[in-house]
Write a structure and sequence with these properties.
single chain, mainly alpha, 3 helices, rod-shaped
């Protein structure tokens, strides 16, 4: 116990430094930052479902273009 009292001013100074430099955060601050990150990601990036739908549409368009190309080649010969 005496050792703890001897080092208590140093411990308090370290704790104050950690809090001032925001190295230690509260769960509330962490949750707020988490919500901000989720919102930012939602605005900047597409969902995997939207990506797969778009990829499928491109694949369908490629097939249709290939069919049109085949028809054009057959008609010109």
């Amino acid at each position: 116990m005496e050792k703890l009292l001897q080092y208590s001013p140093i411990l308090i100074a370290v704790l104050i430094f950690l809090i001032q430099e925001r190295i230690v955060v509260t769960p509330e601050q962490l949750e707020k930052k988490h919500r901000e990150i989720i919102d930012d990601v939602g605005k900047r990036f597409v969902t995997i479902h939207s990506y797969k739908d778009l990829k499928e549409q491109f694949s369908e368009m490629k097939e249709k273009i290939d069919k049109i190309y085949d028809c054009v080649i057959q008609n010109t010969m």
